[in-house]
Design goal:
With about 190 residues, this protein is mainly β. The protein is built from 1 helix and 16 strands. It has a 6-stranded antiparallel beta sheet, with no helix packed on it. Strands 9-8-7-10-11 form a 5-stranded antiparallel beta sheet. Strands 14-13-12-15-16 form a 5-stranded antiparallel beta sheet, with no helix packed on it. The longest helix is centred in the middle third of the chain and has 4 residues, at about 95-100. The N and C termini lie far apart (about 50 Å). About 15% of the residues are buried.
């Protein structure tokens, strides 16, 4: 593994530290009145999500970890598992639903996702930033509502709830942000 010095660790860097894989969330260079400068880094464990604050001096080195990005296609859900197919080799892999978390509700047949892999082991998954879904249930517009509270609750075809503008009705398709789980705009066509 390539080595980097402690002052080169920046947000987004993935390092091997204390026997685990960590991603740098924040980093701040600190120059105390006495002694040498150091890099104060907030790390997040890629496997279990633990957080750690660590000081790295410029003369310390850590192992930089390269993650492989691979495209997969979502095939189907099987109980508590999700089945994906490697778009290059056509091999199938099964991941637990909680690997994807609540965003698993956005997965659609054939959807292209990107997996980050370390030594062929999935570390994280990236879904498309936006998906188009149909509204199956929306509250009627209440006349006289103020503009500040003009958004109303609606239920999407995947069962998730979002707030939508009053002009959106059941049966319409909308574009939803998969990270924020929020309405973006009415779908075209």
């Amino acid at each position: 593994m390539p080595k980097i010095s402690g002052n080169q660790i920046a947000p987004g860097s993935v390092v091997s530290h204390d026997g685990g894989l960590w991603v740098a969330v924040k980093s701040t260079t600190v120059k105390p009145g006495k002694g040498g400068a150091f890099n104060q880094v907030e790390l997040k464990n890629l496997i279990d999500g633990r957080k750690l604050n660590e000081r790295f001096r410029a003369d310390e080195t850590v192992d930089a970890v390269e993650l492989e990005l691979k495209d997969f296609s979502f095939l189907y859900a099987d109980g508590d598992s999700l089945v994906f197919m490697d778009l290059d080799s056509y091999e199938q892999i099964e991941l637990p639903k909680d690997f994807v978390g609540e965003r698993a509700a956005f997965l659609q047949d054939g959807m292209k996702v990107t997996l980050q892999l370390h030594e062929a082991r999935p570390i994280s998954i990236r879904l498309p930033q936006q998906v188009t879904l149909e509204i199956v249930e929306a509250d009627p517009v209440v006349r006289g509502q103020t503009a500040a509270s003009s958004y109303k609750p609606a239920v999407l075809e995947n069962g998730l709830r979002v707030l939508v503008p009053p002009f959106i009705a059941a049966g319409e398709k909308i574009v939803v942000d998969t990270n924020e789980v929020a309405y973006l705009r009415r779908a075209e066509g």
